[in-house]
Design brief:
The complex is a heterodimer of chains A (112) and B (243). Chain A contains five helices and no strands. Chain A is mostly helical. In chain A, helix 1 packs antiparallel against helix 2. With 243 residues, chain B is mostly helical. In chain B, 67% of the residues lie in helices and 3% in strands. Chain B has six helices and three strands, in the order βββαααααα. The longest helix of chain B has 36 residues. The chains are: A mainly alpha (112), B mainly alpha (243).
Chain lengths: 112, 243
């Protein structure tokens, strides 16, 4: 018998707590909309992605109760997310260092 | 034969040695225990059984994330190679529907979380109402998505070899368009699957299957629905908000 039996699986957020998380999510979504107009180019993608990540953390931690559950749930999910990030970064590193990539750019840019 | 131990007898206690009293064991059909309060024979408590179910669900959600990761990786690669084309193509995405759908799914995650909260407080009617609201929001999402697809197809913004959009040359743009259909289509399939699960959960909630202590099916269905919301949280900026 481990002590994990005593860990509360759910810190049981109140209904008001859930509504507060939802308000934060709606606020962040609206912020994404404004940011997409204010910040353009490469930084626009960074800002949009950072806000999306913040929203994801809110949903996972509070709506999905990952913050209050057993550590093993976090291990299972966070490891998968880590591999997901590795996959995308590895592919970007590959594509980004191919000299041939530059030759694709911008027939449309000139056409516009 | 599948047997299950009635939880009314000492839940949370490990079975003591020796034969279990016959009254605590009752044979079931091969479908296993139906009542949510039943502990299957390999677990010594309902809590442990639920913890295992939750872990299984998290592993499943992890595999779902990696399924989408393949397409996200493809998107990252092609957007890196064709930044101007992706920018130009996304200007033709339906930002209004995409944004409305974002708020719909965020709100449906709230109603889902509140449905589970209501079950924990023994509010059966409220649970059913909140599940129904979640289903209505998800259905509206699917309908709007269908309207969006119909509009794009009418313009010739079709995937792969069916691309016939006069305003933009196909090269690079068609990759965005194809990924748009693949990503949103796979996501819409998940929404639709989630809606079926939610419908089944609403029927069970109405039937009184869920108790404050035992409602693991509702909880796992909720986790799946939140994942659908999570995927959209990333799809929306990547497909609609390129500036």
């Amino acid at each position: 018998m481990t002590t994990s039996e005593n860990i509360s699986e759910h810190p049981a957020p109140t209904a008001a707590g859930y509504v507060a998380v939802w308000l934060a999510l709606v606020g962040l979504a609206t912020a994404t909309l404004f940011a997409s107009r204010a910040v353009t180019g490469g930084w626009g993608l960074v800002v949009a992605f950072a806000i999306a990540a913040a929203k994801a953390v809110l949903v996972i931690a509070y709506f999905m109760h990952l913050s209050g559950g057993r550590p093993i749930y976090r291990i299972a999910f966070v490891v998968a997310v880590a591999f997901l990030v590795l996959l995308v970064l590895g592919i970007l590193a590959d594509v980004g260092t191919r000299s041939v990539a530059s030759s694709y750019v911008d027939d449309l840019g000139q056409a516009l | 034969m599948t047997t299950s131990i009635d939880t009314t007898a000492h839940p949370g206690q490990a079975p003591t040695g020796g034969p279990v009293a016959p009254s605590r064991i009752h044979p079931r059909s091969h479908r296993g225990p139906k009542a949510t309060g039943s502990v299957q024979v390999q677990y010594d408590s309902l809590e442990r059984q639920h913890a295992t179910a939750r872990l299984g669900m998290w592993v499943f959600l992890a595999s779902e994330s990696l399924l989408f990761a393949g397409l996200f990786a493809l998107y990252a690669a092609y957007r890196f190679v064709y930044p101007v084309q992706f920018h130009a193509a996304s200007a033709h995405a339906n930002l209004v529907i995409g944004t409305v759908n974002t708020y719909l799914l965020l709100t449906s995650s709230l109603t889902m979380a509140l449905a589970i909260h209501a079950t924990r407080r023994s509010h059966r009617r409220r649970t059913v109402a909140l599940l129904t609201a979640t289903i209505a929001l998800g259905l509206t999402f699917d309908v709007l998505k269908g309207i969006e697809y119909a509009g794009h197809l009418a313009e010739g913004l079709a995937p792969g070899g069916y691309y016939a959009f006069g305003a933009l040359p196909a090269r690079g743009v068609v990759l965005y368009v194809t990924l748009y259909y693949l990503l949103t289509g796979l996501h819409a399939l998940h929404v639709t699957g989630g809606l079926c699960v939610l419908g089944w959960l609403a029927v069970r909630a109405q039937r009184g299957d869920f108790t404050p202590r035992s409602h693991i099916a509702l909880e796992l269905g909720g986790l799946y629905w939140h994942l659908v919301d999570l995927v959209w949280i990333f799809l929306w900026p990547l497909l609609y908000l390129i500036r």
